[in-house]
Amino acid sequence: MKLDAGRVASFRENGFVHVPGVVDAETVAGLRAAHDGLVDRWAAECEVDRATYVRVVSQWTSLHEQHPRFRAQLDHPAVGAIARQLLGASAVQLFHDHLISKPPRVSGTIPWHQDYPFWPVDAPRALSCWLALDDCDDDSGAMRFMPGAHLDGEQPPVDFLRATWDWGDRIHAAVPTRAKAGDCIFHSCLSWHTSPPNTSDHHRRAFIMIIMHADCRWDPEHCDWHPMNDCVTVQPGEHFNRDRFPILGAGAAAC
Ligand SMILES: O=C(O)CCC(=O)C(=O)O
Predict the structure, then answer these.
(1) In what order do the strands lie in the sheet with 193-195?
(2) Which of 99, 17, 14, 36 is nearest to 65 (CA)?
(3) Cβ partners under 8 Å of residue 53, min gap 6
(4) pLDDT tens digits, residue range 97-135?
(5) How far apart are CA 175 and CA 8, in angstroms?
(6) What pTM was computed for the model?
(7) 100 ligand 1 Cβ < 6 A
(8) Beta-strand (E) ranges in the chain?
């Protein structure tokens, strides 16, 4: 699967592109079931009931190391092909994956932010593939983007606990990305985005694959506290080690 020129141009201009129906319903159901099973296990390990656990814990990292279905998702051919196309890369590499859950009525706002200032990566040649595991709309936490804001470059990292980015009148240009389960929203690591609370009665989960150009190098000075720094076994300025930062999909052959 490749994007048409219009969608590629839209990604370049706006910093994000919504691609419907990338992942089929059966695969999405399998990912939801895998996550449900992991949540049951983690709640039991914490000795709390499931409802309490999901109210408190809403984000999990490196699920591909926890369940084969998430590992298989990393090699979804369309995800790799689109990421290579958008990054202009012959090969792409995982930085990390994570799953963000907004359970019915108990989630908060994720404030306006850019992702790249939080990553120990030497250049903003990376994107996120945000895969909807549930349908989502304005009531259930659909992400919103500020089109074109990525073109202003990297800004200092926002403080997630205090952030209130003031867009002034530009706020009217913000675009909600209502999505169906199986849709992917590819967004540049410099895009500005936010998501509102889920005030609906249904779950809103997304599996997010952070994908970088395979030529990116480890730059711990860019973010010295990122937990993924502990998984790096190379020296600063070297390419990321592929055991923990795998090359994705068919691109591996070209690398
Ligand atoms: O899933 C969300 O609500 C926010 C996701 C996000 O911030 C991201 O993909 O960078």
Answers:
(1) 110-113, 193-195, 144-145, 175-176
(2) 99
(3) 39, 42, 43, 46
(4) 999 999 998 888 999 999 999 999 999 999 999 999 999
(5) 17
(6) 0.95
(7) yes
(8) 16-19, 59-61, 92-102, 110-113, 126-132, 144-145, 175-176, 184-188, 193-195, 204-213
Task: Give the Cα separation of 171 and 173 in Å (integer).
Answer: 5
Which of 193, 203, 226 maximizes ligand 1 atoms within 8 Å of its Cβ, making it the mutation to test the pocket?
Answer: 193
**pLDDT tens, residue by residue, 152-209:** 999 998 888 877 788 999 999 999 999 999 999 999 999 999 999 999 999 999 999 9
Ligand 1 centre from 206 Cα, in Å?
Answer: 8
Domains of the chain: 5-147+168-254 (2.60.120.620)
Quote the DSSP letter at residue 23: S
Which of 115, 195, 200 to probe ligand 1 with, by most ligand atoms within 8 A of CB?
Answer: 195
